[in-house]
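Researcher: Here's the sequence for the chain we discussed earlier.
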Amino acid sequence: MSININVGIIGFSLHEQEKIKWIFGAGLERDRTYHLKDLTVDENIDLLIVKTAAESALKKLESYQQQYGSLPVVTAGRESVESYEHHIQGVLLLSRVLKVLDLVQLTDNNNAEPQQKQQSFDSDSVNVGGQYDILVVNEDEENRQLLRDELLKSDIPLNIDFALNDAFAIEKINDKYYDFLFVDAETANFDAIDKSLKANNRSSVVMPTTKAEAVEYSHIVLRILKSFADADNMIIPDESDHTEGATSYNVLVVDDSELMHQALKIELDKSGISLQADYVFSGEEALEKLSDKDYDFIFLDVIMPGIDGFETCHKIRKIEKMAKLPIIMLTSKTSPLDEVKGIVSGCTTYLTKPINSDEFQKMLLRIMRWVKDFKYN
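Model: Thanks. This is the structure I predict for it:
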């Protein structure tokens, strides 16, 4: 007799979700049968699978564990996480996934009912096991519907929840990690929502939104999430990608600090990738360089004399041939609003100063795979 096991997943793309569904429904006669379930409805969840390459997924894991209890966790991706015993390495293959899941020891607590909370207008919620979670806080039905329709135009799988007011929103924030909140600019108590986010250690981005701004703001958020999804789904290349005689790539480093130039030079040399780097100290110098030479990617400081990194990035994106050029912003600021400002101006991802060597090398490999595929395929 087969044991039915409900599985929740965090951080997987829509394509990956379909692959997992196919694996679970392969029709094999086995002692365990796995079922993919939503994490945002009242389902009994027996174990969680988390994609380690998706930074937002690991942030959400803690809040889901609070909701469902101490569930077994299986990580998936190129790199394992030391604190978790079970890991699905690399590509999601049927035999590989089932072999790892079969090793997970389930406890009696796994079948406990999830905590029941007061419903805060869930009838409009969209729960598809999405890669990102959004909360809309608005008492006006027309405004909720407008935001819902605009967000659903995205090809990124989203979970969208709704709350009538800030009191219901706080209840949801206590239970779940949201990437973005669309909050009614006219009626909501922003101080209370902000306090709840900080108390729960949530780094969610709050977008105060009027009806007139709803469409524009939803498009901005979808652009940001598309950037996040592209970064999360970048494949880290194997060491075999670093071969002698490989194509050389041009890199531009824009930072007003000579020390940062030296730090980046050390990291770029350490990568083993054939790179030709130019170094400038201002946005104005960067734009002049870009008018004379083509680059494969750019490191761009946020705070500089003259035009700052945000404005420089915006000007670069106006150049047609540089619309998809990877731009990595260098910043000591890590607030979600700074990330929003950077993404809106056109940056690809952020690198926090001082530089962490391991994180830098991982990021560089992801960027290089994207550059290689985009430029030569």
